[in-house]
Write a structure and sequence with these properties.
The structure holds 2 protein chains of 2 kinds. Chain A is built from 1 helix and 9 strands. By secondary structure, chain A is of the alpha+beta class. In chain A, strands 3, 4, 5, 6, 8 and 9 form a 6-stranded antiparallel β-sheet that branches. Chain A has a 3-stranded antiparallel β-sheet with strand order 1-2-7, with no helix packed on it. Helix content of chain B is about 25%, strand content about 35%. In chain B, strands 7-6-5-4-3-2-12-11-10-9-8 form an 11-stranded antiparallel β-sheet, covered by helices on one side. In chain B, β3 and β4 form a beta hairpin. Classes of the chains: A alpha+beta, B alpha+beta.
């Protein structure tokens, strides 16, 4: 006598199959969006001398080949002047991404920004420098492992 | 009866398969998430260590686009500056010559081989960012102390700079030794060796020479408490108003005033100004000389920084 499979067995088997298929699909999708090792992230970090008391700290980033990163930008951006490598607090500017969405953008291949910054005088005997510190950051599939960070600081001694 | 038992058994098997399937899914999902988390931790993301930037050389490249200063390309270098007339340039040269003559007196007295000790007061009246990352206010006043051992060639052999804000959290100590600068307070170490040439003019002369095409230099004499002072004013005007960082503040220029003693050639005070639309000038920062002396040897606590 041939026995038919129970209704519960059919439902549970179908549910398990659907769940497994869903997992496989998600993994493949994530892998297909993982640009790690395929896409190059280019970045710049500059302190440029605009003359007199004006320095301009800036950064820019872009990817190549041109494919949008899910998230792209910088986490931390800090500029300051130092006298003999002593940070001059009156010149200290720091932006973090939490409060500044313009630092972290979505579906972008390139971003850039710059800030005008005045120099500060130093006491006699001391040397003035301008510093620009940036933590570049990108993420291409929503998972931390698919992104990366790079820290870079730049110093300009002037004049 | 037997059929009912068989059906119940099949139901149990079905529930068992579903439970195992769910368990596999949940375990796999958790392990996947843990694996991802282990690749980059939050600590690593926040770590401000340039050394970790070398971890992915194939996917990160820096584009070198530095603007280097080149003689003769002033117009390209400072596109937003108002340039001086040839007459004003000649005046600037004359003023720089006067500054050199005055400053030479102080150099002759103090910039001899041996230890030099300079104490200055710094006060800021403008802060773009009024708090530090931890939310505490940015200090606006400090006492800067410099101990420097000047070599026979005029360059520094060793130096210590202490910027005392009165708060140990923001007080900074930097040391120069074997050509390397180290900020002991924030853990910042210069990546390359360098020569350090101490000057007593607050770098005014080299600054004025570098930017004489875009600076409007003036000089006046002043008497303060019976002391004759020579005041040099350097003003830069922008062609287009400029925003400071992401703030709404707009300036049309900047200026600096340098107060030299006519008798000693010492720079007694420096003032930095912002120039706002309507040519309103606001003092942003002031540095006052408190003391300068040549010393046989620094105190033991200063020498200890070189050990």
């Amino acid at each position: 006598m041939k026995t038919r499979p129970s209704k519960h067995l059919i439902v549970s088997s179908l549910t398990t199959c659907i769940l497994i298929m869903l997992l496989v699909t998600t993994t493949v999708y994530a892998a297909s969006k993982n640009y790690y090792g395929l896409t190059t992230v280019y970045y710049t970090n500059n302190v440029t001398d605009q003359g007199g008391w004006n320095w301009n700290a800036s950064y820019s980033d872009y990817t190549s080949p041109s494919r949008s990163m899910d998230q792209f930008g910088v986490n931390v951006w800090t500029t300051y002047c130092t006298c003999n490598y002593t940070i001059q607090w009156g010149t200290y500017i720091r932006y973090e991404v939490q409060d500044n969405p313009w630092m972290m953008q979505y579906n972008k291949t390139s971003i850039s920004d710059g800030m005008a910054k005045l120099k500060a005088s130093c006491p006699s005997g001391q040397t003035l420098r301008g510093h620009n510190y940036i933590q570049h950051w990108w993420q291409d599939s929503g998972y931390p492992g698919d992104g990366g960070t790079i820290d870079y600081s730049k110093t300009l001694t002037n004049p | 009866m037997g059929q009912q038992k068989g059906a119940k058994m099949k139901n149990k098997i079905a529930y068992f398969i579903m439970a195992v399937g769910l368990l596999v899914l949940i375990t796999g999902s958790l392990r996947y998430q843990q694996g991802l988390a282990q690749k980059i931790s939050l600590r690593e993301i926040l770590k401000l260590d340039p050394a970790q930037s070398t971890g992915s050389p194939n996917i990160v490249q820096q584009v070198v686009s530095e603007q280097r200063e080149e003689p003769g390309s002033t117009l390209e270098r400072f596109p937003n500056s108002v340039y001086m007339t040839s007459e004003q340039k000649n005046t600037n040269d004359e003023i720089i010559a006067i500054a050199k003559e005055i400053s030479a007196k102080a150099n002759l007295t103090y910039l001899s081989p041996g230890w030099l000790h300079i104490t200055s007061q710094i006060e800021s009246f403008f802060t773009e960012s009024v708090t530090q990352p931890d939310g505490s206010p940015v200090p606006t006043k400090s006492t800067s102390e410099l101990w420097v051992l000047v070599g026979s060639d005029g360059y520094a052999v060793q130096a210590v700079t202490i910027d005392d804000t009165g708060d140990p959290r923001t007080t900074q100590i930097t040391v120069f030794q074997d050509g390397i600068w180290s900020n002991l307070s924030v853990g910042m170490v210069a990546s390359e060796k360098e020569m350090y040439l101490p000057t007593l003019d607050g770098n005014f002369i080299s600054f004025a020479e570098a930017y004489k095409d875009i600076l409007d230099l003036e000089t006046t004499e002043l008497e303060v408490d019976g002391n004759q002072l020579v005041v040099f004013t350097a003003t830069q005007h922008f062609q287009e108003p400029m925003k400071l960082a992401k703030s709404p503040i707009v300036i049309v220029g900047a200026a600096g005033k340098y107060y030299f003693s006519q008798a000693t050639g010492l720079l007694l005070k420096t003032e930095d100004y912002h120039i706002y639309p309507g040519d309103e000038m606001k003092l942003t920062r002031q540095i006052s000389l408190v003391n300068i002396e040549n010393a046989e040897t620094p105190p033991a606590e200063i020498l200890a920084y070189f050990e």
